[in-house]
Amino acid sequence: MLATKLYAPTLREVPSDADVVSQQLMLRAGFMRKTANGLYSFLPLGWRSIKKIEAIVREEMDRASAQEIMMPILQPAEIWKESGRWNAYGAEMMRINDRHDNEFCLGPTHEEMITTLVKNEINSYRQLPVNLYQIQSKFRDERRPRYGLMRSREFIMKDAYSFDVDEAGLEESYKSMYDAYTRIFNRCGLTFRPVEADSGAIGGSGTHEFMAIAEAGEADIVYCTKCDYAANIEIGKPGIMKQEEEALQELSVVDTPNATSIEAVAEMLNLPLHKTIKAVVFSIDGKVVLAIVRGDHEVNEVAVQHAVLGSVEPEMATPEELEKVGLTAGFISPVGLQQTEEFTIVVDESVMETYNVCGGANKKDAHYVNINPKRDFNVEDIIVAPIRLITKDDVCPTCGGSLEHAKGIEVGQVFKLGTKYSEALQATFLDQNGRPNPMIMGCYGIGVSRTLAAAIEQYHDENGIIWPRSIAPFEAVIVPINAKDEALMSTSETIYSALQEAGVDVLLDDRKDRAGVKFKDADLIGYPLRITVSKNTLENNEVEIQIRKTGEALSCAIDSVATKVTELLQNL
Amino acid sequence: MLATKLYAPTLREVPSDADVVSQQLMLRAGFMRKTANGLYSFLPLGWRSIKKIEAIVREEMDRASAQEIMMPILQPAEIWKESGRWNAYGAEMMRINDRHDNEFCLGPTHEEMITTLVKNEINSYRQLPVNLYQIQSKFRDERRPRYGLMRSREFIMKDAYSFDVDEAGLEESYKSMYDAYTRIFNRCGLTFRPVEADSGAIGGSGTHEFMAIAEAGEADIVYCTKCDYAANIEIGKPGIMKQEEEALQELSVVDTPNATSIEAVAEMLNLPLHKTIKAVVFSIDGKVVLAIVRGDHEVNEVAVQHAVLGSVEPEMATPEELEKVGLTAGFISPVGLQQTEEFTIVVDESVMETYNVCGGANKKDAHYVNINPKRDFNVEDIIVAPIRLITKDDVCPTCGGSLEHAKGIEVGQVFKLGTKYSEALQATFLDQNGRPNPMIMGCYGIGVSRTLAAAIEQYHDENGIIWPRSIAPFEAVIVPINAKDEALMSTSETIYSALQEAGVDVLLDDRKDRAGVKFKDADLIGYPLRITVSKNTLENNEVEIQIRKTGEALSCAIDSVATKVTELLQNL
């Protein structure tokens, strides 16, 4: 393609409301424009990259025997009411009435729709397994759309749904998608980890999130530096941290006026944080839940929810709820407390391995010192569970290696749904014995537009984007230093033809702008290779090829540019 | 692909609510399923064909230097209010509020959006022309969705928008799209005509509709059997039909009790219809408009609207409106009537060439005989214009050849918009003299899903679909007569590999069903070629190739199947 024919308006200034690098660069480099809060238009460059990601997704989904279909964006409310999600979904689901006042939503996802689609068509185990997918715009009315494509209101998603006869079949479908996703994100050039994640409110028996590692990510993850272990921090299983055994001292109360945080208490009493315990009080399913971790640890809300078999996400308890069960905010420990119908105590495993620690005295302005949990808690009466967040001082639960923490952008998720939707919507098949069974489902999502943003978050420098070759809008750009110079243009065109013939996706920057402007744009847009055609090198029948990723520049004879470029691209 | 891996549930019965052949066949053959009124899911076979159409559209749009982008489906109300279409669009536009109560619509089209997108980016004549397109789901809340994909509420459309510096530029952009559309529909294998059409309410200076000729079409078109002339019947310009001159007889009144239609009067008075004139009364922009055509002609409402420079589509006048201007329904002619501020008379050109005709006497149960318009109408006071629909008795306005009438499915439209949107939304550029000018726009649509339906309307028989090769879900199917016979399966697989290597898009029907079932499905789904592998022919190292379109069957040596299939496909 010729740059003079390309609609790619670049911006000099960073837009003031762009809050992450990928958004800033996509706006500056002319990849997209903002239409309204959380709504973006893709311009030709951005759309080229999106189409390349889509093509990779299609190839790998097809290779995994999934079949592409297309369901409507408009979904009738009835099926969501049948599954119980019409109310459960809340304000994030965009709802619309048609001219006859029938209710619809704009699909945020398609579990109900796909289940309805197949339920009258698949009747026998002989027709299973089936895996159907689509690539489509999805809608979620985020309360606060932000981070550009990473949390927008209309976004491109690949969603797939598998149907199997039994759990073993689901395992196979799941594994097949897991492997396809691994290939997809590898081919997109992302640095990523599939991490164990929480199945949360959606139910189901297992899930992995595919996390692109990036500072701008919204998820906290932990991964092993030695083995494959990786988990969302919410689900990372910490081991038990032991402390050196000590002789048990006598429990006593000390005055700690106004020291309502464990940090303040530790400072006041000159104690290290790991010699303290701290309390966080939640409200879960109408119960007050007291969670206890070491002063140097943090509570994992999801683990607390699981420990008490909670059906909803924990919320912080209100002052009224604390009062109702007799707790004194800021000065709480389990010492002397009993569980009741409406009050549960959950203590982290590592707390049980502490000696002579300090914790709340359950009255205002006072703390206990020399708490010894095994001695001082009503151990018959409390739940002991791993409810702290895993830290970098923990070791890998799989291999004992050391752990790293990182931020991740969730670019994909694979999910064992089980029978939640097939039961709600009566999607059954007859098994080999002629008995009806609900189909066993899995669902598998990829954020296509978010993958684009994640790649930029990972690959950029102060001058612009550094595209992985596979999803770059063009693989190479040819820059004649002076487009008015006929010799330069003629050589550029020769190279352009040779590269096209070699199957390289190439742009010829035939604009009459100064070389500096073209170089700046090439760096900003981030073509993997730049081929500079200038008088100096032309004298030797050579051009310069610069690699965006490394900055490395090398000379190349004009008639071997195609070979050289092809070779270089293979390693980018 | 293997049929056992393909999700393609066929139906034995024609669904009762399917009102056109394309809809019936797409449901029966497992191309799509109905989700709700006017909403369809494409299954793998249907989606394969849609993607083939999309690929053709992309190739030809790119060849015409248009660039693909993607704008959001959700569009803010503000831009539609600026253009004045927020109210004008009516109930067909689906409207939705977000959680903060901001108003949006689901894009039925994107003129406002694209104009807003480019208006701050294109500032100079040097950046023009630009042509941007997208392929996207569009939404129109039809009062009565019907005809399957031909009038659905969510449909796939390719919409393109061109921006030029002047009318000459627009002409070029328009021509380029016109040619691209011609190539696209030719490549899709459609029988079609680009027809002149009415620019209607949308404004602009010219438009062609691309009409696929088919009985199920909703549009009436007329085309020349000798030259390229073709027009929507609404815009087809009839010539003046002369009648043989006669001596003018004396005007007189005859009783015609209860004869309120011109057919009844003609019968009562034993006159041929062309010796009568008839009246249709409209309400346009608050005026009563009396339209007069010959008794054997029909009024063209669009022509009437143009004749009186009406800004809205004509509606039939109410009895109250007739009364207000003193007209007696069923007995109206212009004889003795005068135009007023609120009453206009429009007479078709051919009426002025009649002699001694019969028409209403402007009183109940009475008609004039021997009306001679040039003598009896207040000729200074009436508008004479071509306001009748063109008939098959007319001749081609371009070459004088004979005309054919046909029904057409509108699969595409090209439109010269001019400055309607660039002026409303202030999309200006600086010309060579540094003066701001509104950009000159064109817009160009293709109904992608409708094109699929149109192809089936054109190509089918009592057994199923007969796909043009270019948009068939698979180009060929291999049917081993008995999938349990290892020799047949092994030969089938050999042929399958050979065809795949030759680049043929082929399905191997490896299902264990009876041959009859597979043949029926092959005919229903409509693969262009069927390769039958049976014991009989295998003895001679041959298979049978059947051409769906002609029914012709030919023998072919196994090792030359790939060559033969490739050759046959080239002519399909």
TrEMBL record, chains A, B:
Record text on subunit structure and interactions: Homodimer.
Identify the species of origin.
Answer: Veillonella rogosae JCM 15642
What superkingdom does the record give? Answer: Bacteria
The chemistry this enzyme catalyses reads: tRNA(Pro) + L-proline + ATP = L-prolyl-tRNA(Pro) + AMP + diphosphate
A Pfam family recorded for this sequence: HGTP_anticodon
The enzyme's E.C. designation: 6.1.1.15
Q: What is known of its domains?
A: Consists of three domains: the N-terminal catalytic domain, the editing domain and the C-terminal anticodon-binding domain.
- Function of the protein: Catalyzes the attachment of proline to tRNA(Pro) in a two-step reaction: proline is first activated by ATP to form Pro-AMP and then transferred to the acceptor end of tRNA(Pro). As ProRS can inadvertently accommodate and process non-cognate amino acids such as alanine and cysteine, to avoid such errors it has two additional distinct editing activities against alanine. One activity is designated as 'pretransfer' editing and involves the tRNA(Pro)-independent hydrolysis of activated Ala-AMP.
PROSITE patterns, per the entry: AA_TRNA_LIGASE_II
Q: Where in the cell is it found?
A: Cytoplasm
Provide the protein name. Proline--tRNA ligase
Query: What broad class describes the main subcellular location of this protein?
Result: cytoplasm
Q: Which family does it belong to?
A: Belongs to the class-II aminoacyl-tRNA synthetase family. ProS type 1 subfamily.
